[in-house]
């Protein structure tokens, strides 16, 4: 089992991890005492779930009244008196609200933002997230005070670090929305000091830390890995490699997050070997397709009303979906009483009979997307993949497990589905990330760079085709606009200490224009290995942030140059754009020289929301 080090800090601290899912959410925490080995615990008691022993999650459901006030959250929304009051007072029941945070991903896929339940009037998705986080925070406080000393919370209130997880595919704007929601919820003070206590983490890396500390470090796993490996991989020098290629598939309710790592068991460490993948095909979309299928199937039946369809879908979601195993056996949805019958539609004694083949088709898009994401990473990985782990709520599906097991076995790859506590894997893994930091390197998911101009090259065919757009720079050079200057390319393995830089220069007609520099950092998300032009595949380029630098001091030392056209002078300011990854986040800054000494601007990142 993984051996965790003692906490080396000098002050007691509390770490809270929130796993906010589309359908269910959970909390894990750890009280750090100097000199003691940290223990990760889960919040297993929530309002209206007191009678359920060891419940690790609550539904991500909320009720708002007509004034936009929160009236019930989580398991409270399932209480009969709450449901009755909600109907009487016309409260808005909000489900799947998390998908509103990244609706831009939905329009081009199988699921549109138009399919989402609308938000309450006047409410933004970020405000809903803030309301939900405030509730989770209150639940954590109540649980910690009950499980430990009742005074512990107040003594640690200004020393609480928060970890929030999100799908692999979320971009920088969504990450900033999370930070803003934490402030709206009042969990930390507004500003840099408060945000220094907020840590963001992908679901994939949280799951990796859970598996590493609960499964991969076990003697049983080491034996299994050795048994399933045909022979030891060799390093370039011919020696046997200690590293194994592992892909972790986090099959959740909304997304499928896939992460690829090089794994070393002794001591335990990981290095990302391919960009993370994220597909919007989690278990909720099997349920979504089921509802559409039942609506079409029972359109002319007396059981085709929306209330009955919804009841059937809920029952399918809780029972049939997870227990489905064979496409050759019929499946049943028990939705009514013995009196409910419609033989034309295979309804007998309150049961709807479905063919196994029809149910299998509901899973097909999800299975296909998981395999597609896996293959993208397997081909991009710098070492062979020998083992795949399936975790997440959707991993409990027998059909999903058997479908993926069949595919992986055909490739000779070991496939494992952890059998215990996977419902709390993300929250527990997030705390483990905070404590253990097992990932030493990551792969850049996109190519990052700067829009710029490029010197015209007359023998370059692409340049010739752009000749009509060329302009004469102040120094007399012929240049082309709409160029892209790469700083960090997709797939490059990076660590928290590495920097990537590219040199640029700007020419200005007057000295005052050189007193500051402003640069846009852009991500290229397409498939071209070396993107050169921002006006090609325009939809693949996304502005992430703008960085600034005060270069007024170096401007004073710039010497004027005579323009070749005789129309005056110009000044050239040279600088580097530096990109680095700090923990899980992209950061950038501008660097320049003053009297031969490097000077850097602040890491000022302004995200586009």
What amount of the residues lies in strands?
25-35%
- Judged by helices, strands and strand pairing, the structural class is alpha+beta
Helix content: 25-40%
User: How many DSSP-defined strands?
Assistant: 30
Sum up the overall morphology in one term.
globular
Q: Number of helical segments?
A: 14
Overall average pLDDT: 88
Major sheet description: 7 strands, mixed
Distance between the termini: 43 Å
Structure description:
The chain is of the alpha+beta class and 609 residues long. It is 28% helix and 30% strand. It has 14 helices and 30 strands. Strands 17-16-10-11-12-18-22 form a seven-stranded mixed beta sheet, with helices on both faces. Strands 1, 2, 3, 4, 8 and 9 form a six-stranded mixed beta sheet that branches. The longest helix is centred in the middle third of the chain and has 25 residues, at 356-380. It is globular, with a radius of gyration of 28 Å. 37% of the residues are buried. The model is unreliable at 224-240 (pLDDT under 50).
Question: In a few lines, what is going on in this structure?
Answer:
With 609 residues, the protein is an alpha+beta fold.
Q: How would you summarize the topology of this molecule?
A:
Elements: E1 13-20, E2 24-32, E3 41-42, E4 57-59, E5 62-64, E6 70-73, H1 80-89, E7 92-94, H2 125-147, H3 152-156, E8 160-166, H4 172-184, H5 192-195, E9 198-202, H6 203-216, H7 219-228, E10 243-251, E11 256-265, E12 268-279, H8 283-297, H9 306-323, E13 331-334, E14 347-348, E15 351-354, H10 356-380, E16 385-391, H11 398-410, E17 414-416, H12 425-436, E18 439-443, E19 447-455, H13 461-465, E20 471-472, E21 478-488, E22 493-494, E23 500-508, E24 516-524, E25 541-550, H14 552-555, E26 561-562, E27 569-582, E28 585-594, E29 597-600, E30 606-607
Parallel strand pairs: 1-8, 8-9, 10-16, 12-18, 16-17
Antiparallel strand pairs: 1-2, 2-3, 2-4, 5-6, 5-7, 10-11, 11-12, 13-15, 14-15, 18-22, 19-21, 19-24, 20-21, 23-27, 24-25, 25-30, 26-27, 27-28, 28-29
Helix pairs in contact: 2-4, 6-12, 8-9, 8-10, 10-11
